[in-house]
């Protein structure tokens, strides 16, 4: 597959993260091309000298690498996006500091005259992006957003108009569409919505979730089933929640096993911020390496030593951004296999039709079903 993106006479070699042999998906799409074309033909010629540029939701660094000469700031919720940007800058011989990175649990330092944004999957996260970026826009600032038409509901455009200012949409091009909004300083912006939350029956947990966290407003049905299979007792387990989201499984395990040391990892900065807050409110935060739950942003279990864990729990996604498939789950299962000690266990939940049983049997010595309902199955691999 062609992995070369051309912009302003430069050929950029771009890769997705994590790096995989035989990758079938590109690190950029027509919406990235359309944004860069509009930048070249319309935005850049009219931009003020030394205009400050903000990139939002640049998935794998395509926009950052293409516009590296403008020293943009990239604001994103994905640790894998950060790794992809760093990798792709290096591959293309661009300076490490050409693009400033700001994670989504922090705010970028404005003011910015120009903003290029990829429309995210989460409408709640899009609303929050606009609400948080608005105070950091310079007078007369322009925000140009883009996405594939089939993935862009009308509310993306209406939110842009309600939160930034007058908005115009483009014609479709290669099944992509853009929307441009100019800052209206007199606009009455809708009030920020409160954080979403829910309780977890039987675990004395009340969880809150940031806008881009998985299953932010209700307990996911798969996680609900997996919670019923968690071990309970006084064993001093070394455990991890792989892809922890707002921390529901890690905190459930810490509640059931008071002597367990549980690490929750996720590639979403907002998810980890949510999990840390939930742990504090529940009184389950690990202190000085003792029992309880601790959380960190990471690419899987990369920070865990080989053979260091007794238990891994996992509710894996079956998509990466808009792309669906089992690549993410495969990667997570391999991380678990590497980190578990001999006799260690992986508890994983998934939709029945995903066939995780066959994948796990290729990586582990034994795999069996320990719980199921109409939609989901919980598997134990040893």
Summarize the structure.
The protein is an alpha/beta fold and 382 residues long. The protein is globular and about 65 Å long.
Describe the structure.
The chain is of the alpha/beta class and 382 residues long. Helix content is 28%, strand content 29%. The chain contains ten helices and 20 strands. The chain has helices at residues 30-46, 62-66, 79-91, 123-133, 154-163, 221-227, 248-256, 269-282, 327-339, 356-363, and strands at 4-7, 10-13, 53-56, 73-76, 100-103, 112-118, 137-148, 167-169, 176-182, 196-200, 205-209, 238-242, 261-266, 292-297, 309-314, 319-320, 323-324, 340-351, 367-372, 376-381. The chain has a seven-stranded mixed beta sheet with strand order 5-4-3-6-7-9-8, with helices on both faces. Strand 1 (4-7) and strand 2 (10-13) form a beta hairpin. Helix 4 (123-133) runs parallel beside helix 5. It starts with a strand and ends with a strand. Residues 319-325 have low confidence and may be disordered.
């Amino acid at each position: 597959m062609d992995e070369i993106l051309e912009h302003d006479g430069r050929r950029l070699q771009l890769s997705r993260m994590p790096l995989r042999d035989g990758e079938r998906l590109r690190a950029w799409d027509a919406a990235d091309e359309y944004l860069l074309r509009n930048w070249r033909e319309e935005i850049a010629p009219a931009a003020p000298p030394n205009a400050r540029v903000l990139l939002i939701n640049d998935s794998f660094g395509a926009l950052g690498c293409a516009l590296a000469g403008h020293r943009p700031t990239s604001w994103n919720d994905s640790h894998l996006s950060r790794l992809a940007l760093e990798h792709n800058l290096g591959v293309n011989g661009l300076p490490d500091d050409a693009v400033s990175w700001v994670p989504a649990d922090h705010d970028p330092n404005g003011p910015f005259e120009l903003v290029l944004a990829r429309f995210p999957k989460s409408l709640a996260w899009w609303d929050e992006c606009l609400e948080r970026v608005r105070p950091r826009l310079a007078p007369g600032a322009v925000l140009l957003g883009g996405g594939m038409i089939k993935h862009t509901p009308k509310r993306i455009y209406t939110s842009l108009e309600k939160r930034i200012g007058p908005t115009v949409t483009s014609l479709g091009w290669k099944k992509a569409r853009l929307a441009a909004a100019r800052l209206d300083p007199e606009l009455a912006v809708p009030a920020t919505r409160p954080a979403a939350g829910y309780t977890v029956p039987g675990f004395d947990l009340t969880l809150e979730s940031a806008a881009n966290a998985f299953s932010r407003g209700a307990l996911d049905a798969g996680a609900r089933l997996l919670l019923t299979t968690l071990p309970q007792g006084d064993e001093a387990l070394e455990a991890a929640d792989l892809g922890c989201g707002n921390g529901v499984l890690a905190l459930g395990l810490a509640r059931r096993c008071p002597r367990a040391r549980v690490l929750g990892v996720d590639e979403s900065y907002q998810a980890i911020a949510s999990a840390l807050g939930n742990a504090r409110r529940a009184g389950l935060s690990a202190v000085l390496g003792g029992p309880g739950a601790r959380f960190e942003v990471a690419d899987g279990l990369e920070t865990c030593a080989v053979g260091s864990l007794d238990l891994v729990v996992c509710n894996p996604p079956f998509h990466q951004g808009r792309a669906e498939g089992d690549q993410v789950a495969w990667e997570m299962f391999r991380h678990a296999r590497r980190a578990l000690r001999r006799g260690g266990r992986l508890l994983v939940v998934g939709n029945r039709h995903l066939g995780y049983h066959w994948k796990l049997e290729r990586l582990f010595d034994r795999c069996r079903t320990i719980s199921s309902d109409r939609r989901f199955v919980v598997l134990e691999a040893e």
